[in-house]
Design goal:
Length: 393
Amino acid sequence: MRRFLTAIALSLLLAVPAHAAAQALSRSSTGKPDLAAIDARMQSLVARHRLEGASLWVSHNGRDVLTAHYGGYADTTRLPIASASKWVSALVLARLVERGTLRWTSTVGEWWPTAPADRHGITLAQLFAHTSGLPGDESGCIANALTTLQACAAQILAGPMAAAPGTTFAYGGLSMQVAGAMAERATGLSWDALFARELAAPLGLVATDYALGSTAPGLVSVPNPRIGGGVRSTLGDYRRLMAMWQADGLIVDGPNAGQRYLAPDTLRAMQRDHAAGLVRTDVPPSVDRYPGWGYGFGFWILPTARAGLPVIESSPGAFGFQGWVDGTAGVAGVFMVRDSNLRLAPEVQALQAEIARLLEPPRSTQGRLDLVEGAQRLRRVDHRRSRTHVDRQ
């Protein structure tokens, strides 16, 4: 794999950049890192693959260092993000866990007593870590826009099991559909309403919804949102998720900047490798190239290409869109495109490695804590928003 990635990196560096429009690139004359090589790499990628466009956002140690659009993309470009939706939905559930409305140990039987008995012990954690024993695929009702989330979950639970709960990792969207329906039952609210309350409002998201495939403007509600793959979003919205994650649960910008979104203990529970020690099936090829991969709640835990260093947390979608956080390099990023992840994954991995190389690592292992302290100072000096927590009602 290392020789394969090295060959890709060399071919990219030798490629001739195509015409593109880039915005807000950091240059050495500003005292910031010079990312001209990343700009050239992105232009080359768009030209060689004949993409309609692409966008890239990069943050280093909590400071934006690059926001760029190529081809026909712009700030207003909104695309379906496929499985990058899983991280989005996991954050909604995490907030409900913090409220005490649900627990990661909440079971299907508690909220779905009519489900078959052998499904009763499946937990919320297993549903969102692909270890529930439900089949690891995307078939059936999850793509049916004419049904409801509740009806779809009931159909999934009435279907076959692929394994005993907690014994197998099988990547797919069926289990996450059931988790979303559990959240609706626990709160009495629709998934769209929960998303608006628990994520969109606190983080200031203005162009993100679950209307996969829709081109309608504004925020569109759907009766059967695809929990694990139905989101459409923009670079500007998704970067707020990645910036919050990089800041260890603090909101970095927007109307609630400096407020805490999730507690550190909640993040640690999400970041644990929930696939460890299990039989593994239905693993995407772009991930299976990483020996030693793991899975949190809604995102992959991938060893970096830099041997001996910690992991990248990433949630790539089938169309190539992905957000990632590289804790070793102090980097958070969003790569926005609509193409094929299978085709672009090696190039995106090389892009991530190049960004990490160009941006010096944090001066100490306290890089993330330094960012948290900075956000806390922002919270203390902002007297207009003196509340300690985001109003979650």
